[in-house]
Specification:
The complex is a heterotrimer of chains A (202), B (196) and C (186). Chain B is mainly alpha-helical and 196 residues long. Helix content of chain B is 73%, strand content 0%. Classes of the chains: A mainly alpha (202), B mainly alpha (196), C alpha+beta (186). Chain B: It is found in: Cell membrane; Endomembrane system.
């Protein structure tokens, strides 16, 4: 039953690049595109999703033996929805500004295929410690892409990052970057670049 | 008459101006995943429209008569997702029994719809916008039509793209995203269509 | 015991459902006071922004509408504020309008809540746009794209004409609601 530390580290690293949820698996796209108009929103969404992912992976890997196979999916969805509601109320109570700007994309974490997918693919088959490592890795992998995307869009679209103005008055913002069209195009180019890098590495 | 105009405007703005996929970013997963062929894209759109219209009606009833009446707002997300999952299951069983032809066309897409965030997004937007029952159903139907429109257009473009010379690293997802971006720009042209 | 028997399936789902409902009830009760405090704080800030100099605010209900009357240190009424909302470009816009009833002018407006596009429609929260309304007499406003030359003209934000004109309509409506409730409109 002993799980080697090496195994845990490789589970953790898996989500960061090799099986990065956005770049590699192309799942969880709705929030990726919708809330990355600023760096801060991207970070907040990444952390909120990571919390739900890790918490659900822990609970599900703990009780996996008690859930009959036929109601596996409904049970997972119920557990995920509970954590999402928790995050939503928590943000509304303590970080009202962030809750406001993420609006319906916080409750939509429920249907983020990334979360349900990891429960099916990982948490329901592996011990809790490995599930935690997987959740943290996937969560971080999701978060960093969101932050990078948010930073690129905010930089070009508003000339700032994390709300700090970097480019002076002379800069005429490329408004298209913060609009839906900019989201699609930036992510498309980003995925292309990542494909290029990982192909070079081989 | 006044009301009818309002409903018609709501429908048009849901389909074109606030398109679920291209403007609201809801339902991106099937948009990228099931848009390789026009025919399958259309079936997916049809199945989604069907479930969306039903979901709009069901969630409005539940939200108004159960959640708001009993003051249980914190159970909104849990109950909506249960409603959607059961509805999809029910629709699947119903179609299987009544129309094998339709089942053959839509069957494989139905389970995918549960985790389509466009459906959940629709359920969440209805109480947020405070629509009446009829407006909700029209909103649900319009959202479905808009979804179908975007996914079929995308599939048409991707069929053509098969013959294009796309740089290797951009093949597949990246080029689809870039096309979606250009489509989103085109749809921005509709934004001045109605001033409500 | 058969793990996949119907009884077992229902039992599992019910247990998860009950535990989840209990947990959420607790979360709801724990966070509600904070959420309400946040909302009250937002409201208070918006009122003090649109009625500068008001020390005390009184809630007044006239014909089912809630108005906020601000009074200064001497107890003189500074003005009346009203919160109105309406559809914007992306979602609903909520804003607070403060008016001076004696001079029949808008004092200031404040955007409480909106979902407009960052960098474009979201600039309705910029001072440059909001100050358009300060000192405007009651009535209907025209949205123009160039610097306003007449009193009733409001300059739209470049590239966000829809957000600008919808906001203007919400302000207009708020002004006429206040005016009607306080017996003006003559």
């Amino acid at each position: 039953m002993a799980v080697k530390a090496k195994q845990l580290i490789s589970d953790l690293k898996n989500g960061l690049w090799q099986e990065n949820p956005i770049i590699r698996l192309v799942i969880g796209m709705c929030p990726t595109l919708a809330v990355t108009n600023t760096t801060e929103n991207g970070l907040a969404m990444g952390l909120a999703t990571s919390f739900v992912l890790i918490a659900s992976e822990i609970v599900i890997s703990l009780i996996k033996k008690l859930i009959p196979a036929n109601v596996r999916i409904p049970s997972y969805i119920l557990i995920i929805a509970t954590f999402v509601t928790f995050v939503d109320y928590f943000l509304k109570a303590f970080f009202p500004g962030i809750a406001e700007s993420l609006s319906i994309f916080v409750p939509l974490i429920v249907v983020n295929c990334l979360i349900l997918g990891r429960q099916e693919a990982f948490a329901s088959k592996n011990p809790t410690r490995r599930a935690i490592a997987d959740g943290v890795g996937m969560g971080l992998g999701f978060t960093w892409v969101l932050v990078v995307l948010g930073a690129i869009r905010e930089f070009f679209g508003m000339g700032s990052i994390f709300g700090f103005t970097l480019l002076g008055e002379w800069y005429r913002p490329m408004v298209i970057m913060v609009l839906p069209a900019g989201a699609f195009i930036t992510l498309g180019i980003l995925v292309g670049i990542m494909n290029y890098i990982s192909r070079e590495g081989k | 008459m006044e009301e009818f105009t309002q409903i018609l405007l709501l429908f048009i703005s849901t389909v074109l101006i606030n398109n679920f996929i291209l403007v609201r970013f809801l339902g991106i997963c099937p948009f990228l995943g099931v848009s390789k062929q026009v025919e399958t894209a259309f079936s997916m759109g049809l199945a989604t429209t069907f479930v969306m219209t039903l979901t709009a009606a069901a969630t409005w009833l539940i939200n108004t008569f159960i959640l708001e009446a009993l003051n249980l707002p914190f159970l909104q997300y849990v109950s909506f997702i249960i409603v959607i999952a059961s509805l999809v299951q029910f629709v699947e069983m119903f179609i299987k029994k009544t129309s094998p032809v339709l089942y053959k066309a839509l069957g494989i897409f139905l389970p995918l719809i549960t985790t389509n965030c466009a459906i959940m997004g629709l359920a969440l937007l209805i109480p947020l916008n405070g629509y009446s029952f009829i407006a909700s159903v029209v909103f649900g139907f319009g959202a479905g039509v808009g979804f179908t429109l975007a996914i079929v257009l995308m599939a048409g473009l991707r069929e053509k793209l098969e013959f294009g010379d796309v740089p290797g690293v951009l093949k597949g997802v990246p080029v689809t995203l870039i096309i979606a971006g250009i489509m989103a720009m085109a749809f921005m042209g509709f934004s001045g269509l109605i001033s409500m | 015991m058969e793990k996949n028997s119907t009884k077992n399936l229902i039992l599992t789902l019910s247990i998860i459902g009950i535990v989840s409902a209990l947990l959420l009830t607790f979360v709801y009760q724990w966070t509600t006071p904070y959420i309400q405090a946040n909302q009250a704080e937002t409201l208070r800030q918006a009122i003090s922004e649109v009625l500068p100099g008001s020390e005390e605010v009184e809630e007044v209900e006239i014909e089912g509408e809630v108005f906020y009357e601000g009074f200064d240190v001497q107890g003189n009424r500074v003005g009346v504020a009203y919160q109105n909302s309406g559809g914007g470009y992306n979602g609903s816009i909520e804003l607070m309008v403060g008016v001076d009833l004696d001079s029949e002018e808008i004092i200031r407006i404040s955007i409480v809540n909106h979902q407009e596009t960052p960098g474009l429609g979201a600039r309705i929260t910029d001072e440059e746009y909001k100050s358009n309304f300060s000192g405007k007499p009651f009535g209907d406003y025209t949205v123009v794209k160039t610097p306003p030359s007449e009193t009733m003209e409001v300059q739209a934000i470049a590239g966000a004409t829809i957000s600008s004109s919808k906001t203007t309509r919400i302000v207009e409506e708020a002004v006429s609601i206040i005016n009607n409730a306080y017996g003006g409109g003559s």
